[in-house]
Structures are given as structure tokens and as C-alpha cells.
Write a sequence for this structure.
């Protein structure tokens, strides 16, 4: 074989081998996948960027496949947010001209992934004048809006594209005279209906049903005895050997470190929302960085739990290397909800806002409640705002007040927090101004807002003008 | 008016629509229905449901028995949805089930500005039904790349609740409505082939 032929053969074989590696990485996953990303992902998705199938559920899927993927994770929250621009509003043929300018029926029209160079706040990849495409004549209906800059609609604390539950005109005027701080500033508390319907006998030391070798861990037993678990009749085997009833003895089925799946047996809503939020999204069902295939060459590899060092927010170095699960914040055996609400957070989060919490007015209220000088529910922990208790309808149609562990439900845009959190204690005007003041947010709300959101004033002025016109 | 095109022969997806279409074919001797007939039939159902909700639910409970109010922010205010919202919610649900037709409630004097006419056919139709009581308006129009048979029907104040709300609402551009006045119109569109 001539040298030329050898070189051609070598080129062909190496090209084919390279293509095979790349194709295998795309389809089956593995280490090569990280190098195949076509652009940096958004902060919302970076944790699951190696589980390509989460969005690209079919290899050659087009817009429909991506749209279905978006809705698999986000449809429920859009519904809860009373989405002001749902796709169903735009399917009427009378909107054909609007859709030609901006196809508002597809999520990817505004939110394109892997495009860091054009990604703005909230993962929006459109130029920031998108509101004007349909609402350019707003100044004729609302003179207060004439001449406003095209990019201020969604950046000045006045409007959001999806969630306007606390921003619509009648809500603004209804809360015109809210005080800055409400007379009864109490966050939502647990309610009696949260208790299990089937009352079980509280357990004592002699009731602990762990294998003898495990009972030697006195600290664990003492911690368990002090918990609501022991008081509610949840024994060692409840978490460590949940399939005890199916086994002759607990040893073979003993789980040394039960994971969220076991916690979900009793705390289904908490675990479900944990897997929807930043802490647990990598543990959501069917997310894998590698799929079994190619005659066993690739194994199924679910995404590993989130670790603080993988976050894009500043995290404490001391926390690096720890897998995030339920016990990361709640602590195994102790399951101390108080620790989880502040210390659990500050053990990892080291950004300016988090660090400024200590000593802030909210923190002082928290300390006062813990010391017994403040009424129950008057303290404001990290979790009060970021994992608030919310009414959740159970299977019997009754509301249970449960902590929402999906902080995304309540995080950005920050106006999402108004009704679910801020309104428990603060008036609307005070809240709008405070949330719009970025420096105040960084200081964890120490001090007063120096920003004034005009929306309540304008809504009130318009209402007064309408009343005058009809008198 | 141009001649009426026939409906596409493709079966509708939802079971109810398929049954309705089947019944229509039987009734008309398998010739297929004209879009005008289908629009008239759809409107008969819409109008009946809308009248029942307005009279038997909203008007009775808000004005006669005074046990609850009706509000566009019905969840926040623990109130009844307004009849116009009820109609829109139905239209949106129907649109999710079938692409064979669409409908909306519009007005020359809309409380919600998004319900003002946007196409020439809508404007002409709403003006026609307001000026010619008892008559409907039929036409064809092209929106995007699709041609539609478009019908417009008068929507009248069938109960005092309609009059009160439209005259008192802060965003209402007209405040002199009386019982049985035309408040707006129902627009029904059926996609047709060229």
C-alpha cells in the first residue's frame, strides 16, 4: 500500500472513530458530553445540562419536543402563577399578525438555551423591547405610560410577562393605604390539619427497633427521642428499614443513609418540591448523564446530587464536597426544623445577601422569637422567605400548610414573593419599593428603600380620573 | 357575499365533535354542512349557555338574591366569574381540544381593550350587528396563511347584571346601555380551504 493510501486510510479510520466517540457521547452520554455543549447554559438549567434528554427527549425533535420538555417542568408553576400570557391566549386566529412578530405560543421564542451572549435576566433571549411589539400604543390608553423607555416595563417593579398576581391594577389600588408594617406581622404557621389522621403511640427508648449493633450509637438514639418522629410513633425502621413488613429481620434490608425517596413516604410534598428546586433538581426522576447502551459499554448513570461547589452563587468552601439531600439541612436523627431555617442555609450560602442576613431586622426578629420574647411566627428566617409555608390542597380538598422546598416558586422575579411571603407582614407599597432596590436586597433589607415604584400612584391616579369622568 | 365553501371532510378529533359532525351528516343527507350552518349551530349552543349563566347564576345571585358578587378577580374576591370571562374560559378550553373552529367575544365598546376588533371583518361585523338588530354578519377573511369563514352574532344585554356592569365598570368606554341593547358580538371562525 502506498503512503498516500495509508494516509487516506488512517484519515478515514480516525475520522470515523472520532465521529463514533462524539455520536456515542451525544446519544449515550459519559464524560465526553461536557465537551459537546454548544454554549453555556442558563443558571436555571446548568445543574442538569449533562442530562441532555431532559429537554432533547428525541434526537431529532424540533420545536414541539422542546415545548413539551419546557411544560413538563414548568406548566404547573405557570398555572399557579395565573400566567398573564398563556399560550392559549394567542391561538385564536385573530392574533395571527401578533404571532408573526412574536410567536408567544412557544417558550423558546423568548427563552433559548445555550445562548449566553444574548441571555438577559430571567433567561430571556429576546431584545428587551419585546413588550413594545404588542403594547407600543399603551401611552394612548394610559397617559402615565407615554414616553416610558421600552425596557422599563419588566425592569422597574411594575410588570412581569408571566406572573402579575400582585401587580394588577385593582390589586394595587386595593392596597394603596397598606401600612409599611402590618399590626399583626406573623408568617404562616403550621395548622392542626397537618397532623396525621392516624394517631400513633409516642415511642420511648425501649421501643427503638434498630438492630442491636445500631443501638450502640447513643447520640443518634438520644437525638431521635427528642424529635417529632419519636413523638409521632416513627421508629428507627420507619426510615432505615421501610420494607420491614416484607422481611423476616431488619438487618438485610437496613438502609444506612435513607435518601429523599424514604422521606417522601410521609413528606411527599416536601420531597416533590425539593426535586423541583435548586437543591434537589438533579435528583428529579429520569435525569441521567449517561444512558445504558452500545452493548453494555455505557451504563445508566443518574445525575449525582447537587454539591455546593457546583453552584454559580458563592458558597462556603467548608461546604464543598457535600451531597445535598434532606439531611443536609435537617440533620439526620435530629431533624431540627429550626436549624434548617437559618444555620442550614448559611452553612453553604456565602453571597452578600445571605451574609448580610445576620444582624438584619429580619434576623433580630428571628432571634427574638427563638428567645421567647417575640410571638410565634414573628421571626423571619431564611426559609420564611425562600421556602415559605403555603396552603397546599390535599386529596380531601383540605388545605395543609406545608413548606415549599422549591425556592424557584418564590425567587425570581422577586415580585413572586409579594403575596406568598412579604404580604404576611408588609404593605404592598413598602414591599414593591424594597424589592426594587437592588442595594437594599444585597443588604438583606437593613435600612429603607431609596427606590420608589410608581405603579400604585399611577393606578390610583387613573382610578380617580375615571371616577371624576363618570360623576 | 361570496359562495359558501364546504367544510373539510377530515374528522374532528374530540369525540363530541365527531359525534356532532356525524349527526350533522346524517341530518343533511351526507352532503356536508356549509360553514354558515355550522357557525349558526355553534352559536346557538354558545348563546344558550351564556344566557343561562348570566340569568340563572350571575343575575339571580348578585342582584336578586344578593348572596355573592361577580368580579373579574373572582378568586381574590371570592366572587363569581363574569359572564364574559366564563365565555372566554370556554373558548380557550375548546381551542385546546379542536383546531376546527375558534370563537371570541368582542365589542366596539370593550371593557377589556384586548377585546376590541382587530381585523376588518371583526370591525365590519360588530358595526353591522349593532346597526341591524336580529341579523348576523358572514364573511371570509385571511389571517396569517389561513382562510376563514367568519360569522359575527350580536351579543345583547339579556339581564340587568349585563347593563349594570357595562355601565358602571371603571374601564367601560360607554355607559348608556339599556336592557336588550347590543353590547358586542360573538365572532366564530372556521378554517376553510381556498
Amino acid at each position: 500500500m502506498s503512503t498516500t493510501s495509508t494516509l487516506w486510510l488512517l484519515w478515514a479510520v480516525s475520522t470515523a472513530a472520532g465521529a463514533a466517540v462524539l455520536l456515542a457521547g451525544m446519544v449515550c452520554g459519559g464524560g465526553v458530553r461536557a465537551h459537546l455543549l454548544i454554549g453555556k447554559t442558563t443558571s436555571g438549567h446548568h445543574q442538569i445540562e449533562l442530562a441532555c434528554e431532559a429537554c432533547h427527549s428525541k434526537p431529532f425533535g424540533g420545536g414541539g419536543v422542546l415545548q413539551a420538555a419546557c411544560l413538563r417542568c414548568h406548566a404547573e408553576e405557570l398555572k399557579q402563577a395565573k400566567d398573564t400570557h398563556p399560550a392559549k391566549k394567542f391561538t385564536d386566529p385573530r392574533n395571527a399578525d401578533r404571532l408573526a412578530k412574536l410567536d408567544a405560543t412557544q417558550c423558546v421564542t423568548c427563552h433559548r438555551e445555550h445562548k449566553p451572549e444574548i441571555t438577559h435576566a430571567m433567561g430571556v433571549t429576546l431584545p428587551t423591547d419585546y413588550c413594545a411589539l404588542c403594547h407600543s400604543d399603551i401611552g394612548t390608553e394610559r397617559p402615565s405610560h407615554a414616553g416610558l423607555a421600552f425596557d422599563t416595563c419588566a425592569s422597574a417593579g411594575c410588570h412581569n410577562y408571566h406572573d402579575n398576581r400582585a401587580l394588577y391594577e385593582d390589586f394595587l389600588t386595593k392596597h394603596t393605604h397598606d401600612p409599611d408594617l402590618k399590626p399583626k406581622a406573623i408568617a404562616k404557621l403550621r395548622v392542626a390539619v397537618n397532623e396525621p389522621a392516624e394517631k400513633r403511640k409516642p415511642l420511648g427508648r425501649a421501643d427503638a427497633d434498630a438492630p442491636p449493633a445500631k443501638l450502640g450509637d447513643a447520640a443518634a438514639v438520644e437525638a431521635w427521642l427528642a424529635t417529632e418522629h419519636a413523638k409521632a410513633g416513627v421508629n428507627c425502621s420507619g426510615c432505615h428499614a421501610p420494607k420491614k413488613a416484607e422481611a423476616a429481620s431488619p438487618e438485610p434490608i437496613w438502609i444506612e443513609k435513607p435518601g429523599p425517596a424514604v422521606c417522601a413516604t410521609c413528606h411527599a410534598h416536601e420531597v416533590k418540591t425539593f426535586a423541583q428546586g435548586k437543591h434537589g433538581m438533579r435528583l428529579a426522576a429520569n435525569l441521567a448523564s449517561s444512558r445504558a447502551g452500545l452493548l453494555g459499554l455505557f451504563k445508566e448513570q443518574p445525575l449525582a446530587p447537587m454539591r455546593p461547589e457546583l453552584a454559580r452563587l458563592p458558597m462556603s468552601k467548608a461546604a464543598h464536597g457535600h451531597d445535598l439531600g434532606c439531611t443536609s439541612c435537617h440533620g439526620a436523627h435530629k431533624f431540627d426544623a429550626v436549624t434548617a431555617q437559618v444555620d442550614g442555609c448559611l452553612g453553604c450560602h456565602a453571597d452578600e445577601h445571605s451574609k448580610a442576613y445576620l444582624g438584619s431586622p429580619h434576623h433580630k426578629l428571628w432571634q427574638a422569637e427563638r428567645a421567647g420574647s417575640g410571638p410565634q411566627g414573628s421571626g423571619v428566617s431564611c426559609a420564611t422567605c425562600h421556602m415559605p409555608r403555603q396552603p397546599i390542597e390535599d386529596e380531601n380538598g383540605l388545605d395543609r400548610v406545608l413548606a415549599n422546598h422549591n425556592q424557584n416558586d418564590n425567587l425570581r422575579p422577586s415580585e413572586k414573593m409579594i403575596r406568598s411571603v412579604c404580604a404576611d407582614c408588609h404593605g404592598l407599597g413598602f414591599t414593591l419599593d424594597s424589592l426594587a432596590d437592588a442595594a437594599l436586597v444585597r443588604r438583606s433589607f437593613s435600612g429603607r428603600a431609596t427606590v420608589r415604584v410608581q405603579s400604585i400612584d399611577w393606578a390610583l391616579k387613573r382610578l380617580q380620573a375615571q371616577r371624576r369622568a363618570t360623576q | 357575499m361570496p359562495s359558501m365553501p364546504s367544510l373539510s371532510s377530515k374528522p374532528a378529533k374530540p369525540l363530541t365533535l365527531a359525534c356532532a359532525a356525524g349527526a350533522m351528516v346524517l341530518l343533511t343527507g351526507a352532503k356536508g354542512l356549509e360553514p354558515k350552518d355550522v357557525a349558526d349551530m355553534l352559536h346557538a349552543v354558545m348563546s344558550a349557555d351564556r344566557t343561562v349563566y348570566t340569568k340563572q347564576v350571575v343575575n339571580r345571585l348578585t342582584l336578586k338574591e344578593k348572596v355573592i358578587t361577580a368580579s373579574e378577580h373572582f378568586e381574590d374576591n371570592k366572587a363569581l366569574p363574569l359572564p364574559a370571562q366564563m365565555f372566554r374560559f370556554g373558548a380557550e378550553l375548546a381551542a385546546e381540544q379542536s383546531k376546527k373552529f375558534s370563537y371570541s367575544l368582542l365589542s366596539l365598546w370593550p371593557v377589556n381593550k384586548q377585546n376590541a376588533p382587530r381585523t376588518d371583518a371583526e370591525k365590519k361585523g360588530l358595526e353591522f350587528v349593532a346597526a341591524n338588530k336580529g341579523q348576523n354578519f358572514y364573511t371570509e377573511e385571511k389571517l396569517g396563511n389561513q382562510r376563514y369563514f367568519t360569522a359575527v352574532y350580536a351579543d345583547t344585554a339579556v339581564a340587568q347584571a349585563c347593563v349594570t356592569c357595562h355601565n358602571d365598570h371603571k374601564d367601560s368606554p360607554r355607559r348608556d346601555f339599556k336592557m336588550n341593547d347590543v353590547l358586542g358580538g360573538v365572532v366564530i371562525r372556521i378554517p376553510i380551504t381556498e
User: Anything to note?
Assistant: Residues 382 and 403 of chain A are 12 Å apart (CA to CA).
